[in-house]
Amino acid sequence: MTTTLTKETLSHLDWLESEAIHILREVAGQCSNPVLLFSGGKDSLCILRLAEKAFRPGRFPFPLMHIDTGHNYREVIDFRDQRAAELGERLIVRSVEDSMKRGTVVLKSADEPRNKHQSVTLLEAIEEFGFDCCIGGARRDEEKARAKERIMSFRDEFGQWDPKNQRPELWNLFNARSHKGENIRAFPISNWTEMDVWQYIERENLGLPSIYFAHTRPIVRRSGAIVPVTDVTPARPGERIEDLLVRFRTVGDITCTAPVESDADTVAKIVLETATTTITERGATRLDDQTSDASMEQRKKEGYF
Q: Percentage helix, strand, coil, to 5, in the chain?
């Protein structure tokens, strides 16, 4: 007997999944040369699964691309490469370090965080390959600047984002058309929350980098944040190194990504922890969001995803 899905039988996650698949297919239908930004993080892993449901058994109608700062966690980079190989999809990697060699990125000091400089490398990659749309895993609940985004976010010929000059998106009609040199940033899971992401990961049984689960790591406590001790972020004189049970809620450049104290070592435990936390995902874990010169809105205006 065939079961027909009706409005009553669709779950909350079913609706979100359906919307995201629709957005991915709209990108494929309207854009001539899109690319999916894939870092190996939880949000982009959800989009990979959505792309599988949207386009398999065929190949994705776009390659994958990661803008690497050169200071990413090894666990995440290894998982990124493993997942792309499993899918058999093309993975393009462009690094901020390449931009530094070209002289298009100049650091103020050797230990300056590189996260904000990803904008330059991304715009260079868009020009190199002629991409007219970049699909990303940003969500509106992450940060106040992200909350201003349309699902199809228009960027001008300089890669700039103007939150006051965006296209209306009424009745789920998405306009991804652009002139040569302009760019669209598409966000299929824009309406998802952190809880939605973890529940979807649990439902789909998605693999994840081990860094998302509780593990013991050397850290120092600095300005109210837990800072991992690494070659890139060594302890400062006078700081006491602790071995602490932590996990990462979001991952990125080592210099700006802090873990949280946690014993959640399974997806089910993370779902429960997420339901009870009073701290936003980026609130105490993304150190670069706390400084005005590297704020999310400023970076997005400069071309950041």
A: 40, 15, 45
Which residue, among 260, 258, 261, has the nearest Cα to 233 in the 3D structure? 258
Q: Tokens for 69? A: 């700062």
pLDDT of residue 162: 75
Q: Supply 41's token pair.
A: 């993080």
- DSSP annotation of 265 reads -
CA distance 86 to 15: 27
The answer to whether 40 touches 67, Cβ cutoff 8 Å, is no
Alpha carbon distance, N-terminus to C-terminus of the chain: 46
Contacts of 144 (CB under 8 A, 6+ apart): 296, 297
- Helices and strands in the chain: count of H runs, count of E runs: 8, 10
The residues with which 115 forms a beta bridge, in sequence order, are none
Fold classified for 12-197+293-301: Rossmann fold (3.40.50)
Omega within 30 of 0 (cis) for the link into 57: yes
What is the DSSP annotation of 200-216?
HHHHHT----GGGS-EE
For the chain, which residues make up each domain, given as ranges? 12-197+293-301, 209-289
The model's pTM is 0.88
The stretch 170-191 carries a mean pLDDT of: 85
Whole-number pLDDT of residue 294:
52
DSSP helix/strand/coil, 67: strand
DSSP sequence for 84-143? HHHHT--EEEEEHHHHHHHTS---SSTTS--GGGHHHHHHHHHHHHT-SEEE----TTS-
> What residues contact residue 235 under an 8 Å CB cut-off, 6+ apart?
220, 229, 241
Which amino acid, one-letter code, is at 272? L
Read off the amino acid at residue 143.
E
Report the range of poorest mean pLDDT among 80-84, 193-197, 264-268, 298-302: 298-302
pLDDT at 249 exceeding the cut of 70: yes
**C-alpha–C-alpha distance, residues 249 and 257, integer Å:** 9
